[in-house]
Amino acid sequence: MDYLLERIVQHNVTHAKWLNTLSYMENAGARKISACEHPSEVNIIQLKHAAEEHRHAYYLKKQILKITSSICENYNNSELLGSTSTKRYLHHLDIKTCKYLQQNFSLNKEELKYAAYLFVTYAIEVRADELYPIYQQILTKYSSKVMVKSIILEEEGHLEEMIAQLDKFSPDWKIHAEQILKIEKDLHEQWINSISQEVFQENYA
After folding, report:
1. Helix (H) or strand (E) holding 115
2. Given pLDDT bands bounded at 50, 70 and 90, which one contains residue 33?
3. What DSSP string describes 53-87?
4. Residue 82: left (phi > 0), alpha (psi -120 to 50), or beta?
5. Contact assessment for residue 24 and residue 80, using Cβ atoms and an 8 Å cutoff
């Protein structure tokens, strides 16, 4: 992972696409959170998460301007890294998580949406807590103008909030979360492999 990020950070066009890819993921996460909202019983933490994920997407877009102003104006496939895997990642995690929860809990439609929000967001926050600090270390190493320290702090807070909500959802949530984390790990590896193939093709073409 470190080597991949080093290659990305050293190549401006690839780095811009990486930031745009992260922005897409944050935006997709925010939209998923909003889609999981109950028509009336929406708590403040859920609203906070959606708002902050949208802000992360915007912040990452703005960071691109520190590198270039000529690309990544949208989320078209040509402006992303590993576009197919990127666009499937969260969607597939959501679908597979819902299937798992249906098999292990008796939930109605709204309860399933909320449970999926809890477990999917937890898995994504665990991943973010690993990915962003590594990325920031590489940015610091290469004296990049790009920074993600503010995102790191907020993602840490999100993870604590998700754990608190999962504690209320089920006393056995950790057992189920381990299964969701395995699902996420497989999707993450597919995503990274897709990006790696693209990055090394671009940089050594």
Report:
1. helix 109-141
2. confident
3. HHHHHHHHHHHHTTT-SSS-SS--GGGSSSHHHHH
4. left
5. yes
